Amino acid sequence: MQPLKIRKFPFTAILLLSAPFAVHAADLSLPLNTWTQVSALEKPYDPNDPLVQLLAMEEVDVWARIRKGFGIPDLDNPLVANQVQWYSSRPDYIQRTTTRASRYLFHVVQELEKRGMPTELALLPFIESAFNPQAYSTAKAAGMWQFIPSTGRDFNLTQSMFKDDRRNVIASTDAALTYLQKLYGMFGDWQLALAAYNWGEGSVQRAINKAQAAGRPTDFNSLSQYMPVETRNYVPKLQAVKNIIASPAEYGIMLPKVENQPYFVTIGKTRDIDIKVAAQLAELSIDEFKALNPQFNRPVITGSSDTQILLPQSNAEKFKSNLAKWGHALSSWTAHKVTSARERIETIAKKFGTTPEVIREANHIPPKMLLKAGSTVLVPKPEHAPEKDIAPEIVDNARMVTVPDVPETRRLYVKVGKRDTLASIAKRHNVSVTQIKDWNNLKHDKVAAGQTLQLNVQNKASGKRHVARGTTTHRKAAPAPTRKTASSSKKRHG
């Protein structure tokens, strides 16, 4: 047989040979012929050769890669048909979700293949969040993979005032796949691993123990009777989506084309930069920028050695070129730490020459709330201030606690009862005898029944604290990763 003359093939195919989870910006400077050196190779034809197989896949999109990597046994369960009917009768929902997914699928599939995991797991965010990395549930689960706070901390997903890595596309995907691998190692069954991802591994193990004690099988269908409704439907939902993706035409569904190449690249950022400025330099809309960088909680991205932003490949060079020509400050924000017991937003705004509305919006401060001492908030940099980044120790430890903007005390009039004394009245209202005497100009400790006393008591509303979402109040991890997302109360984001 004549040796195969391997022709030059597209950059897309080369990426499959050696691309990491995302292309780094530095890689873009390599000349194209660096990537195509392999085209000069000649070797005997081997149909099992990965390179030859790769050539046959040149025009395959990511949906085809997912289908090729299916590895979880199909679930034979009557609930699957119900879920297929639900999804297939909503083509607009499928279209919105798959279009949104097109930004992330190549990365997720690439990571699954690197780990040798079934590629239908790339469809799991379809069930969790409709591929919305900004999704936030009533169970406080966040991001595309819907991690609750404790499990996020167990998998090193930073949750601070400035960022929440549960929404970070790369970090959360890595954490989710690591967790799923762990669950598969525990149960040796992908369907049970998925049930545990939704319900918690402890719950699945207890269900297995019950089934074994009753002499019953321990597969997903047999354990369903022990599961809550949400978990009972969870794996059937994934099977339903898998069926539709496997044969979209059969259900009248048109999937958007997802190119078999990275959608985004990573850019390292060691200096603070406003989200608005970063989007402008990349020539992206704010919404598109946030779709790839949803982890940032504030209007400024704080720079560090491990800060990365994601950009579509076509916009990375634009970002670098525009950044080189940018002649203005990259960030217009700095941090202010509250030192007084209760500081009004209006006071801070006046101090920094801005409006209360600007500070409330930048820091997600609800109306009619004050800041407690120790809180850190973003404020506009004063005019002509030196371009200085927010200090790392502030970024790492920033927290914000608000309390209702109401008087700390309220006036109360109390009529003295027959058995009342100043001591009993003081105890009942959590004040001191001395205070009561001062408020009422009393010279002695005796009071008469029927006498009216004025008290200034603590206003209960003023003591209620509100810790801002995304603020870390403690770092203590849960004793074991449990991901009970209470999905029955979770809003689905379509």
What does this structure look like?
Helix 7 (105-115) packs parallel to helix 10. The model is unreliable at 1-47, 51-58 and 469-494 (pLDDT under 50). The strands form six sheets. A four-stranded antiparallel β-sheet has the order 9-10-12-15. The chain has a three-stranded mixed β-sheet with strand order 2-4-7. Strands 1-3 form a two-stranded antiparallel sheet. It has helices at 11-18, 32-35, 50-56, 62-68, 78-88, 91-101, 105-115, 124-128, 149-154, 169-187, 190-199, 201-213, 220-223, 229-246, 275-282, 286-292, 313-325, 345-351, 356-363, 392-397, 422-428, 433-440, and strands spanning 4-5, 23-24, 42-43, 264-268, 273-274, 300-301, 308-312, 333-337, 342-343, 369-372, 376-380, 401-404, 409-415, 452-458, 466-467. The protein has 494 residues and is an alpha+beta fold. The chain has five domains: 4-59, no CATH class; 73-258, Lysozyme (Orthogonal Bundle), CATH 1.10.530; 264-325, no CATH class; 333-406, no CATH class; 409-458, Membrane-bound Lytic Murein Transglycosylase D, Chain A.
